[in-house]
Amino acid sequence: MPKSRKLFDRPGETDLVTVDRAIAEFRAARPVLLRHGEELGLALSAELADADFAGRLDGLSAGNAHLVLSAARLRRLGAKGRAETGRTETGVLAMPVIDLARVEALALKLDARVDAPVGPAGPLDDAALELARLALVLPAVILVPVAAGQVAGEPLVTVTTEAINGYRAAQVARLSIVGRAPVPLEGAPDTEFVVFRGGEGLRDQVAIIVGKPDLAAAVPVRLHSACLTGDLFGSLKCDCGDQLRETVQWMAENEGGILLYLDQEGRGNGISNKMRAYKLQSQGWDTYDADEVLGFDLDQRHFDFAAAMLKQLGVSRVTALTNNPLKIGAIRTAGLEVAATQRVLGRPNVHNVRYLASKRDRAGHFIDMDALMARAAPKD
Q1: What pLDDT does residue 13 have?
Q2: Do both 219 and 329 map to the same domain?
Q3: 71, 188, 213, 235: which one has the fewest Cβ atoms less than 10 Å from its Cβ?
């Protein structure tokens, strides 16, 4: 009789499985049981919480529930920074009663202010916010400390803080090519698409190899975060579609290159939060201020898995086609050589000029507004 083996016996496999399941539960508006040593806490998305679950959690809380909010959201609510540093950090507000109207106000309302002392976040709280970010929901979580006996027999997904905090790195380590095929494009007929699994949650990532780039030289590379509105529908609110198409065209007309199309909509915040931010922008908010209102910092993206994709394709030196210093730094940190950089210009218009200026002034993007405006000027 064959010796029995565990289904999940590879190192770290169980942790990945439980986090994958926790992400699905969180997005489905069901509570997830977090564990840190002997500490246990039920975490529920503040954005998705309904009255039924909130009432049941309230019954378990004995008045000890709290709302976990990101540093960015707390800044918007007027919370003071730490005395030692002056910086606002992730914190919690006590919820003697889980009041969904109060939760909604603290997590989303524009004119809300902190209405109670802000306490320091613990390991359960930090892991709960990371789970929210992985699930692409607002970074605001209702957390109820519980004892094991209170939830015995409940069909809860249980996940450790260590598993959540190590999830992104574990996904990078498991990144693999699952398919590739030639896909001729308009203006770039000699193009191959290579699909990778892993890197960011349950989503696939794509490398578009244009032409036949020389892997022994510095390969022209662009890390392009997916933008449904700009890339597919030609939105005038950003320059993403221009950057995407013009990069591919430039690569086809030169010595080739690689464009990584990364599923990181809305600077890593997801399409629903991007639309929330767009609504705020339509009311006059700056792009980064709109994200901060929702609880997000300047940029939620990670690029370590993008560097891992390049390594699997045999790339060690790159010419980075980007305006974003964050991407350049991430490539270098991952161990690839950035031999040179090259700007990628879009087309300014009345709808995106403020957005482009904000990227330059708030996030340090290398954007020459004079050059952009000259590009937009009518030709004789």
Answers
A1: 78
A2: yes
A3: 235
Helix (H) or strand (E) run with residue 27 in it: helix 13-27
The Cα-based distances of 103 to 112, 124, 137 in angstroms read: 11, 19, 15
Closest CA to 222 of 43, 131, 342: 342
- Catalytic residues, by residue number, are 299, 301
Final residue in a domain of this structure, among 165, 198, 221? 165
Please give the backbone phi and psi of residue 96, each rounded to the nearest 5 degrees, phi first: -55, -30
Neighbours of 40 (CB within 10 A): 18
Give per-10-residue mean pLDDT for the chain (380 aa). Answer: 58 84 95 97 95 91 96 94 77 96 95 95 97 95 95 93 94 92 96 90 86 96 95 93 94 96 92 95 93 91 91 96 91 92 87 87 82 63
Residues 125 and 195 in one domain: no
List the structure tokens of 356. 């482009």
Cα–Cα nearest to 321, from 345, 291, 297: 345
pTM: 0.90
Q: Which domain holds residue 188?
A: 173-264+301-376
Cβ neighbours of residue 233 closer than 8 Å, sequence gap 6 or more? none
Cα 315 to Cα 337: distance, rounded to the nearest angstrom: 9
CA 239 to CA 254: how far, in whole Å? 22
φ, ψ (nearest 5 deg) of residue 239:
-115, 15
Are 202 and 55 within one domain?
no
Size (the chain), residues: 380
Whether 19 and 73 map to the same domain: the answer is: yes
Domain boundary among 165, 200, 217: 165
CB neighbour list of residue 222: distance below 8 Å, 6 or more residues apart:
243, 247, 257, 258, 259, 260, 320, 321, 322, 344
